Amino acid sequence: MIKTRLKWISAFIFIMLGLIVLAGCSTSSAKESENVTLNFGSMDGPPHVQNATTFPYFAEEVEKLTNGRVDFRMYMGGALGGPNETLDNIVTGLMDVGRGIHGYNAGRYPVQSVLNLPFMAEGTGEELSIVAQKLYETFPEIQDEYWDVKPLWIHAADPYAIVTKGKAVRSFEDVKGLRLRTPSEEGSQMLEAWGATPVSLGAPDIYDAIQKGVIDGGVLPIAAIKDFNLTDLVDYVTVGYFNTNLFYVSMNENSWEKKFTADEKELLEEELLGLSMAAMAGRTFDEQKEKAEEEAKAAGVEFIELPEEELNKFKDASDHVAENWIKRMEDRGIPGQKIYDEAVRLIEENNQ
Question: Which of 20, 31, 155, 322 has the fewest CB atoms within 10 Å, i.e. is most exposed?
Fold first, then answer.
């Protein structure tokens, strides 16, 4: 009797294991043969250089690397949510993939924001994007900030200039009292240190705010003059590497885990994601900067180069912003000085 029962139990276990294996194979094969369309949400309109150049390239490469199995449906101009809603919409899955600005999520990416600090933007958009991606890949403290999404790449814009309407900034004194748009906490601290008034505003709202006199201008990448149709609206651009801002392109975790096969994920990691896309996104901004500057000058916008003595006044006034950031990180048990020093080293390495 006992032997008979053991035989039946063994047979049952064998059958169940077989069914589990078959179910696994069936699920895998169904996944590989099933076409998937993912939603890609962008806060900016179709003419924005990232929408017009970078994202279509990314979508084409994903389609190619998955043998046509995975493609994207683009939703631009905030159709799936505005700048402040992007991250939440990625986390909840309303967007499979979205691009946002770290600074629109105050306190959410404090360690990655080391590159938002004043005068950490010495270099091109491509170089700064490579630095941002390398910092992410180097420090677990930065990786931990993306705990609820799958980061695809991180990138920067070209260095931010002071872009104004009506009043030129030719000296440190000229910036005092101006109402200037900034998208980050670090940028706000920098403007306050200069005696200006920071205004937190999403990039798509800059045009109306300047036109209506709500702000005098902003600290913006030069590429933004073209991206947001400011060419005929602004009068002056004071050039400098005052700061930059970081952008994330992230995927919903469930979409990453369940809508790609293991082989596809490995191939995407090796061939496309990370440094490759970060460099391209930054380079795209650099190319847009050249076009924006050429068109703006042709429209009569004056580009102002500050004497070194005046530029140093801006820098000296805002030095404490970085010092405070380092202390804040160290107080939290995060190696702020080490991360800051590595960021500076990478910037200098790229410049060389």
Answer: 20
